[in-house]
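Hi there,

I know you've been waiting on this one. I reran it after we fixed the sequence typo, so this is the corrected version. Both the input and the resulting structure follow.
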Amino acid sequence: MKVLLVNGSSHTNGTTMAALNEMIKVFQAENVETEVIQLGGKPIADCLQCGYCFTHEGCVMKDDGVNDFVKKAEQADGFVFASPTYFAHPSGRLFSFLDRVFFSAATGEVCKAFQFKPGAAVAVARRGGTSATLDAINKYFSLSGMPIVSSNYLHVIHGNTPDEAKQDEEGMQTMRTIGHNMAWLLKCIEAGRGAGVP
């Protein structure tokens, strides 16, 4: 079992990565393989709505990791998309990445790289705007037939720096709960396959 974790921040070791690292500890304890995809500070172009991916394999833009991610997604079992909160929404780079990934991964009306695979959204903020960030990310899951992994509270960590984020004890516990719930769901899906559930 493998989970891909996408850091939608321009800071590869900032507050968003602090949240993901807490989940990674749980995944390691649960014997779930992980890989972090750092969107980082490099530009990611917006979807052109050009239709190229409807008749060709992949996105027409080949140089920013979107097509590579879709190939990895086809082999992955679960996903975590995490973003800092900018003006009460996810980072623009994550929005552009998600638009192009989910469009180019779709075949007709079905997104086989993601369908029936669990997804979790995480928002990081100094203070507010996280609910809108989570809502925006979760829409990609619900529109692609993905089970949405829940926790026992909003999937949020507060802090302006990684050290501040680590002091958010409730937020860090929520990240651990997401990790446990994702691992449990992945094991249930694997057990279902083993029992002949298509």
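Quick highlight: The two ends are 17 Å apart (CA to CA).

Best,
R. S.
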